[in-house]
Amino acid sequence: MEAAITAMYQRLHEKLRTTVPDAEIRIKARLAAEINRLKQERNAVILGHNYMEPALYHSIPDFQGDSLELCREAAKTDRDIIVFCGVRFMAETAKILNPERTVLLPSLEAGCSLAGSITAADVRALKMRYPGVPVVSYVNTYADVKAESTICCTSGNAAAVVESLGTDTVIFLPDEFLARNVARETGRHIIFPSAMSPAPAETELDVQMIGWRGRCEVHERFTTQDIANVRAQFPDAVILAHPECSPEVTAASDFSGSTGAMIRYVEQTKAPRYLLLTECAMGDNIAAANPDKEMLRLCSVRCPHMNQITLEDTLESLQHNRHIIDLPADIIERAAAAVERMIAVG
Ligand code: 13P
Ligand code: SF4
Fold first, then answer.
1. Each residue of 170-187: pLDDT tens digit?
2. How far is 135 from 21, CA to CA, in rounded Å?
3. What is the domain extent for residue 62?
């Protein structure tokens, strides 16, 4: 075991020595080595979202990625246990794709402001108001909302999913900004119905997208003024924004894409400096993986939900089977149809 701890310490030290104090690296290396030992013993796979804190991100996941990439890995796994180092809706998606396997989420506090912005009853009310209109749900929703949906999407495939339906109109839930970004990309007119009267107003009948006013509490905070300030100070900086940012912010940026697409963009671009308008741990993770490139720290907007997932909780999760994701069979069956339709689109 001591050899495994030393090897882990060396790995983390190489990646994080400029950002994490040595004493912390030593503690985290010990935890990570024990997690990896237990992972083998219990035949578990660990999926780590790009927003995990740097020491966790660079030590224990078998796969790191954005929501779509991790959905694909969850669908392929043959391990008995899936430990999801991400937030609850992601772990639920892994369960939906693997109903027979044990899916563990290390902290029950790992929610999401988007997933919490809409209920299954809200979706049923929208379907009554717009009968026959397909419902596209962002994966940042809980399983019962997915179960009411025609198809899911992630930030990496949202426009392709909307276009794959081949219909004049779609309901797109729950992220207002992602919906506005997709509407712009696909040339659609979007509305956000306010009062839930049973029938749509006459003026709503020619719209092509019907949205919902959910917001990501992290990405809604970035502004075009932030971009203007950085461009004034660092004219050579390449600015990347997640599509959960407002359409004004994505339009003023050089690139907009999922967390995975942003990572690939930085890796494949030669510019010396980057500003990432997304959750701040991801900037640290990219900086550690690309030491020759500078990540500008505009501000530190950490997702409070992603921040709940720690190495300590992940170890306890594997030791004590915590916290098991359990969903009703009928919800799993209906939600799986929506998620699998999305995976088939790509
Ligand atoms: P990605 O699908 O781009 O990984 O985003 C997930 C998320 O929660 C962004 O805030
Ligand atoms: Fe949800 Fe935003 Fe956190 Fe992503 S960053 S998990 S969308 S609250």
1. 999 999 999 999 999 999
2. 47
3. 2-110+306-320
